Amino acid sequence: MTTTSITTKDFPLAYGQRFYVQRLEAAPQLALPTQRLYRLSKDFDPDAFIKAMQHMVACHPALRLQLVKTNNGWKQRFPDHEAKISQVTVRGITRLYRSIYAEMLIAEEAKKAMDLRHESPVKTKIVRVNGEYLLSLCADHIAVDLIAFDLFEKELLNTYVQILNGSPMSRLPDETFYKYLSNEFVEQRIEQDNLLFWKHHLSGAPIGMDPTFKSSIVPANAFNCQIIGQHLTDLLHFCRKHKVSLLNVIIAIKLLLLADVGKLNDIVLSIPISNRAMAEEGTIIANLVMPVFIRFTVIPGETIAQLLLRIRDQILNAMVHRQYDYPTLSQFIRTEAKRQGVHFNLSKECNLIIDNNPIAFPNRLFEERLDNKPKLSYKIHKTTFSVMTRQSKSAIYVDIKWDAITWPISSIDMEAKFLIILQQLMKCDGKTG
């Protein structure tokens, strides 16, 4: 297949993409892009950066993704086009005024959903203010997942440095990505059986919130911590000893927190499956993630070892059945919510991203990343309780956010409960009786 024919061919949406397209159609106002913000290095070269961005877009089809509505539903294609890059220099009377205006310009970048029928899935804004450069990178979820954004960030840095060093740039289509899409198309033959599995699994499950509640956006509390040093060594040793993954442990902690804080023992968690099973798929910059909604129970008197084994088995089973048609399952869940007399709401998320080679700041392009600093206040969806974790070689970063109205517990108290559960888990001797 030639490059020209690939750029004009329509491909089916990947499983995870169907989830985001469904969400876009149901609530367009909520389909905002992912945004990352940076302060750029003092010797930043705008021309080299633009060349690096153009090269990235040329090499990775998902960064050129276009949605196409057909008689058989939504498809995607990857036409040739250049990266969308805007540059602004902020001028004003005072330094404070310039800073405030620059922040407003950057914030506006992520306040509007991208129309992928006509717009690029990636947009870049460079703002020069008070003698320094700020950068906003926005990517639509349909095109790029969080793992892919990490890959995008690293490759952009490497490409920028190569251009500065005068290294030759080659342009090759990402055949691994096209192969992935083709394999997903072949796997559609198992969709129906997997769909039946999830319908049976979620039938009668708690999938909603109080129908009398008026607002879906509420104040949130948050707790952040790092597991490092000997604590990290001990935790990873614990996982190897008990033949469970770190994700299994994080899910167990979340379930025990919800059982303690919310008095819940029947819980549906949204857990993204990365869908990067093959080594070559680990470098694909695209949205490959597929969410699965797993119903867990917390059984009084059960040992932590027993809970971990049940979680492990359920996660493995979910991975076997991860290829399903999300829009059809979504309709089933909405029908279930209506039958239960509640609003459809699956907002208890648990995620783990493994990045053994995280980008180091400062470097030749990025002085620092600005959007990953803890905020003073958060707003989230009603009944949200998310546990987001990121693992590197030297640390595990834990970020917990929860609806402060449904669970009026302070960050300090949540920290205490988290540490108690972690300590109890580490003392687990592995006995199942």
Number of helices: 12
CATH arch. level architecture of the largest domain:
2-Layer Sandwich
Class from helix and strand fractions: alpha+beta
Instruction: Show unreliable segments.
Output: none
Structural commentary:
This protein has two domains: 3-173, Chloramphenicol acetyltransferase-like domain (Chloramphenicol Acetyltransferase, 2-Layer Sandwich), CATH 3.30.559; 190-426, 2-Layer Sandwich (Chloramphenicol Acetyltransferase). 39% of the residues lie in helices and 24% in strands. It has helices spanning 3-8, 15-26, 46-59, 95-108, 146-164, 175-186, 191-202, 229-242, 246-261, 304-320, 326-340, 411-426, and strands spanning 11-12, 34-40, 66-70, 73-77, 84-89, 122-129, 132-139, 208-209, 217-228, 266-273, 290-297, 343-344, 350-354, 366-369, 378-381, 385-391, 395-403. Helix 3 (46-59) crosses helix 5 and helix 9 (246-261) crosses helix 10 (304-320). The model has no long low-confidence stretch (mean pLDDT 90).
